[in-house]
From TrEMBL:
UniProt KW keywords: ATP-binding, Cell membrane, Membrane, Nucleotide-binding, Transmembrane, Transmembrane helix
Compartments where located: Cell membrane
Name this polypeptide is given: ABC transporter transmembrane domain-containing protein
Classification via PROSITE patterns: ABC_TM1F, ABC_TRANSPORTER_1, ABC_TRANSPORTER_2
UniProt domain ABC transmembrane type-1: residue ranges: 25-306
InterPro entries documented for this protein: AAA+_ATPase, ABC1_TM_dom, ABC1_TM_sf, ABC_transporter-like_ATP-bd, ABC_transporter-like_CS, P-loop_NTPase, Type_1_exporter
Transmembrane portions of the chain: 20-41, 53-73, 159-178
Membrane topology summary: Multi-pass membrane protein
Residue ranges occupied by any ABC transporter domain in the UniProt entry: 339-573
Amino acid sequence: MSQDSSVPVSRRLGRYVYPYRWGAVLTIVAYLGVAGTELMLPKLIGYAFGEGFAKDAFPLWMVPVVLVGLYVVRGLCNFAGQYLFHWTIARSVLDFRTALVEALLKLDAQVYTRMQPGTAVTKVVNDPQQILQITGDVGMALLRDGLPAIGLVGYLFHLNWQLTLLALVVAPLLALVMKKVNRRIRLMSSRSYDSQLVLVNKVDDITRAWRVVRQFGAAAFERQRFVDAAQEVRRYNLKAAAAAAMAQPMSQLVASVGLSFIICAALWQARAQGTGVQQFAEFIAALLLLISKLRHLSDLAAPLTRASVVAQGCLALMDAPKEADTGTQELPGPARGDISMDAVRLTYPGAAQPALDGLTLAFGAGKTTALVGASGAGKSSIIHLLLGFGHPDGGHIRLDGADVAALSRAALRRQFAVVSQDIVLFDDSVAANIAYAQPRDEARLEQVLRAAHLWDFVQTLPEGVETPVGANGSKLSGGQRQRLAIARALYKDAPIWIFDEATSALDTESERAVQQALSLWAGRKTLIVIAHRLSTIRDADAIHVMGAGKLVETGTHAELIARDGAYAAMVRAQAGEA
Ligand SMILES: Nc1ncnc2c1ncn2[C@@H]1O[C@H](COP(=O)(O)OP(=O)(O)OP(=O)(O)O)[C@@H](O)[C@H]1O
């Protein structure tokens, strides 16, 4: 949790508006200009009719000049007010969104396992605009109705301070009623917001899993799930609207109690002290005007509460645990690639069993080391720790003798190129996916495309290397996606290469690409291969066999076959399957 979580929401949002405060101030000035010209209009018309009938009055051409001039000034002020208002909001939203995406990029790995992509999209893209737009609109309405309300209170004091004080007696009652109404609005808005996130994630699921949905003929099922979730949103939105609709009648009810109270008191005062009817009428007229302003102000409670609920959602994302990057040590250049794990333990939050249970093993520099073992044995968890996505609960991991925990995450991750089980591609071109976040070098691009056996395929694409690959590479085949990921890893040219082989069978050409990539690097890079098909790793310098988070046995293929243990049994089992 960040320290910021104890700072009030309004103050935290204010930080994003503060740099553009002059925009806000000028907006107010512009709107004061609009109000000023509006006030001048009746005055000028009165003047024109009052003075204009005399023979030697002002020349007639002044009428259109002044009138049109006034409207021009009013129009300019109005335009400037709107423009400055949106300028301030847009700038603040940009900064707020940027801060949110920065937080998103630094989240702890565990947070991603809990958060659906739709939630992140809503919080980073939609919510900041909604929050600051509502807050801005409410601010403008406060200026429009709040300032005159304060003026009216002053005027009432001027007219009759005793009666005004009496009128203010209902203020605490009004505050109490509004507090109760607001609490209900907050509760319902918060439920509506949560249910809306559920709805967003349903759409996210439908889009992401469209193949599964169709395969299972589950369109009607998904539709119903969506409608159920949408019903929840509707229900809470209606409840929030009903709570908001209570604000005006309740505040008016309290005001009417106060008003009747005051009329009685004023009549009593008038009868006793003989106050004139005019003064009394003026007082009541001003009071009625004040009540009408309060009516508008009470309507602001609902949007403001909604904005505060949404803001809390965004700020919760900002406060979510960040990846700890306490290591400060840098590596001067590429690592040699000597990795050792010493009595490493890892238990994921909420897991009953440790994923790694006192694991001790090594990956030699420039060697090809394979990790094999049953599903869930802990192979990916080793990679998880090597890349610094998590921290061991016990033991040490060393890279070239340096404790990995002491290295900065950036220095550590620069040493690795990874082809993971789940290939993740960006909705961008072939080239952009390969030279991801790195300077583009055409010759190198061709070289890695050829090495990954993709060059010929890419030549057949309509736009060559500039062809978009679709959402997560959906326009490519499974094998092509895998080879693209290999090309990306080749392009990164890191000293340690991790290949987490997919369990699904590769087509022959992809398998050949994998084999060639492995042989291309064998002896030159430190290779860590998580293998499911043992044929891939026959030539490995060492094979670590894992079981239940522990190292079961280790050796070369020949040694392990000779030992006739777990590895030999796995080889026999796969030979039987083949
Ligand atoms: N984020 C997580 N939270 C909780 N438990 C996890 C998490 N990731 C993995 N596990 C658990 O840790 C154990 C080891 O998982 P790991 O992914 O390392 O196995 P693996 O050997 O790579 O399996 P596979 O060959 O199927 O990929 C499993 O029991 C798994 O359920």
